[in-house]
């Protein structure tokens, strides 16, 4: 009885803290930047002998690189190269004010990109280094891996990298596995660096680092991407994986995407589909995409 009352009391006390944590995690830009700064400070203390503001220089350079990559990515994916804005989608009448704003904005982006590239060349290409900024190769690799695992531009590219390897474990669900892998990497790396600093760093700093980079990241993993992946895996686990002999025997293509199958899930009505294709179809209804039989039983 006492433990029950104590549990309720702790729950009530933690509720406002939990809401604040969720709000902080939803503010992606702020929470991610806080994670990056804390990790870079950890890396400074572990990997740099005299970390004279190395973390801030590192974050600045990585932000510059990110801006360049995002601008190039925007140019590659850009479809409308017209400098003008029309009144409606089908209209040929130009909106002068909006067109002028668009032209100025595009030129501003281009000039900023050129200035940024020039700055990078002066610092790195022409060896005009900064005083006291001499990171090791290992430091650069570790910090860049963490930064790219948390920065939006590179996080969005990661599923494509996973798809390139075509690993059967993912069953074409790289978009679901990617955030779980990245968050797990960042949590593990932060936890490792924090443990290394236990004998030599301030307990207050270690407490903040553990809270921000381990606890909150783990909470976000469990409640968001981890929960989504687990839910989708539970749906797929209703249907067993088809054996290579079964796939060869059917000699068929997936009825959803019309592509050949090297691995597949088999339904109770003995139809084969790619795992991701079946998962997408089951979001609409619990019927077989081919014969429309209800897919309730576990095969």
Strand content: under 5%
Tally of extended strands? 2
Q: What order do the helices and strands follow?
A: HHHHHHHHHEEH
The separation of the N and C termini measures 44 Å
Structural class designation: mainly alpha
Mean pLDDT, all residues? 84
Low-confidence stretches: none
Tally of alpha and pi helices = 10
Helix proportion of residues, in percent?
55-70%
Q: Over the alpha carbons, how many angstroms does the gyration radius reach?
A: 25 Å
Short descriptors:
299 residues, mainly alpha, two-stranded antiparallel ribbon
Task: Tell me what you see in this structure.
The protein is mainly α and 299 residues long. The chain has helices at residues 2-26, 28-47, 54-77, 96-125, 137-150, 152-165, 174-196, 203-236, 244-250, 275-284, and strands at residues 265-266, 272-273. Strand 1 (265-266) and strand 2 (272-273) form a beta hairpin. It starts with a helix and ends in a 15-residue tail after the last helix.
SSE topology sketch:
Layout: H1 2-26, H2 28-47, H3 54-77, H4 96-125, H5 137-150, H6 152-165, H7 174-196, H8 203-236, H9 244-250, E1 265-266, E2 272-273, H10 275-284
Antiparallel strand pairs: 1-2
Short description:
By secondary structure, this protein is mostly helical.
């Amino acid at each position: 009885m006492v433990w029950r009352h104590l549990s309720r009391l702790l729950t009530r006390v933690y509720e406002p803290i939990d809401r604040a944590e969720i709000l902080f995690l939803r503010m992606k830009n702020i929470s991610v930047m806080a994670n990056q700064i804390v990790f870079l400070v950890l890396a400074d203390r572990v990997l740099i002998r005299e970390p004279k503001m190395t973390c801030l220089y590192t974050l600045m350079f990585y932000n510059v690189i990110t801006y360049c990559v995002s601008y190039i990515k925007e140019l590659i994916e850009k479809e409308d190269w017209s400098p003008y804005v029309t009144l409606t989608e089908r209209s040929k009448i130009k909106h002068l004010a909006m067109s002028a704003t668009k032209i100025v904005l595009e030129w501003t982006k281009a000039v900023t990109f050129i200035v940024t590239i020039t700055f990078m060349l002066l610092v790195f290409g022409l060896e005009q280094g900064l005083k006291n900024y001499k990171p090791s190769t290992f430091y650069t690799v570790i910090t860049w891996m963490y930064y790219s695992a948390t920065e939006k531009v590179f996080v969005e590219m990661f599923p494509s990298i996973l798809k390139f390897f075509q690993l059967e474990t993912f069953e074409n669900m790289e978009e679901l596995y990617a955030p779980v892998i990245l968050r797990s990497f960042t949590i593990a790396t932060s936890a490792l660096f924090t443990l290394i600093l236990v004998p030599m760093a301030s307990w207050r700093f270690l407490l903040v680092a553990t809270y921000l980079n381990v606890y909150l990241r783990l909470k976000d993993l469990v409640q968001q991407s981890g929960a989504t992946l687990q839910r989708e895996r539970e749906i797929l686990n209703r249907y067993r994986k088809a054996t290579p002999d079964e796939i060869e025997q059917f000699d068929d293509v997936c009825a959803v995407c019309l592509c050949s199958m090297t691995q597949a899930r088999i339904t109770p009505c003995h139809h084969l589909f790619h795992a991701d294709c079946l998962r997408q179809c089951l979001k609409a209804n619990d019927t077989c995409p081919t014969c429309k039989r209800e897919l309730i039983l576990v095969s």
